[in-house]
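Limitations

Structures in this collection are predictions, not experimental determinations, and the ligand pose is part of the prediction. Treat each record accordingly. The example that follows, with magnesium ion as the small molecule, is included so readers can see exactly what is and is not provided: the inputs are given verbatim, and the output is the predicted complex.
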Amino acid sequence: MSPHISFRGVTKRFPVKGTEFTAVDGIDLDVARGEFLVLVGPSGCGKSTLLDLLGGLTSASEGEILLDDVPITGPGLDRGIVFQQYALLPWRTAQGNVEFGLEATGVPRRQRAERAREFLNLVGLTGFEDRHPHQLSGGMRQRVAIARSLAYDPAVLLMDEPFAALDAQTRESLQDELVRIWQRTGKTIVFITHAIDEAVLLGQRVAVLTSRPGRVKEVVPIDLGDRRGTGDPRSSPEFARYRHRIWDLLHDEVTRAQQLEKEVVGR
Amino acid sequence: MTALLEARPATRTTPVAIRPQRTRRALDALLTGVGKSVAIVALLVVWEAAPRLGLVDATFLPSFSTVLGAWWDLLVSGQLLENTQASLARSLAGFGLAVAGAVPLGLLIGWYKPVATVLGPLLEVFRNTAALALLPVFVLLLGIGETSKIAIVFYACTWPILLNTISAVGGVDPTLLRLAKSMNLGGFRLFQKVILPAAVPTVFTGIRLAGAVSILVLVAAEMIGAKAGLGYLINASQYNFAIPQMYAGIITISAIGVLFNQVLVSVERRFTSWRVPVGA
Ligand SMILES: Nc1ncnc2c1ncn2[C@@H]1O[C@H](COP(=O)(O)OP(=O)(O)OP(=O)(O)O)[C@@H](O)[C@H]1O
Ligand SMILES: [Mg+2]
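Predicted complex:
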């Protein structure tokens, strides 16, 4: 079976002060249908750039990204993006924000309300439908954003550090919830994070990127056994092993990234 | 807003808990009311006392009660109503035309970035040219009648609305634009569903500014050449040495200004009730 998403020699350069700046360089990566793939890498290595490319918000300088064997040329409702800053419309209620995605897909008005309620329920926000974003906590806001992306039923969910701004407890509960939703809906998820714990916990595979320019350093398959099992997987010995493995891979890159930054400043 | 939010859980508990809550809220409202009016009351007291105590010349600043008496006489004689009507008709016409014209124009200019860049310096020049400095030009071109007065109000009201609307469109949260783009939302639907609602608060700031400007400019215009209007009333009273009437005209204008602003604020509230309550 062909992969759901396929990066083929994807390079992205930005014009900066007359020269060009290579953000990501020659990315080759396949994502299977229904897979949960996590991208980790040091700050500024081009993770968000990759996600923008996948979302069709920018186009690659070289190479191509195939979605179901068709090159991506622009944004589309077959991909849903969950942004780090929630990106909720502050003048709409939770319900209205979820309906926003449905309006874009042209779901009839009558079905919208029902679908929105259903997905707010899925993320555990029943009873908060009429709240405006400023009346919700950070975790709740991100749940609304997740519900919005899920409601219009994209095949792929793209998430750019969606939990980075949340406190530890909220983050953990949302992580567990995301795994549950992923198992229930069977979506392909590409998830970006800084946090190693998060990467190990969520990913079936974790792709570690190098610091600037971003390349795939290594792809680590994660097997924590049955995730539906009871007990916190975060405390198992395998978890610690994976954690350490990825830490090792990242550590060199972070040091190198800092070196690069110093050079830039020193210039 | 905060009070409402905090009060909500209480309404779900026993009825006994409601009563003290309600009394407290009423008391709070009363206290805020007193707090807000204390400065005004103090001003009026000083105004009443100063001429009576001979601290100021009562000929040039008659006591507040004298002014109030003059105001009442003007009201009964129908002069006040007539002049207020004339002023309101002019300023509302100019203001209304400015809102109707400048909001759509501002949305258009803001939406087409190159247009905003080209027109920006020009708008800056016009905005910084005091409208009243142009009054002679308006009189020259449009005569001394209603047209020139409505035109100058329209002109003065246009700039705050136009500039605020343009910056409102430019200031829409870029993540929201990215979100819309990721959903393939473009053109008119992007405008209708994202840009327009996001721009509303800033547009209203401009409208409120214009509301104040409309009265300010009109009164000045009426002082220069008019046969009716509150500006005319004030000026004519001063000319005829009817000092209490002059002050009566002045307080009428202040009252109208405050009232107009209050109306605009409550309209704004209705349109932007989703905003984070200030100070919460
Ligand atoms: N529009 C742009 N123009 C120029 N350079 C850009 C642009 N967008 C991103 N870059 C550069 O590309 C590099 C990668 O940026 P990107 O946002 O993808 O990093 P990231 O891995 O998401 O970082 P972080 O973890 O801090 O979010 C950065 O060095 C950034 O400065
Ligand atoms: Mg990023």
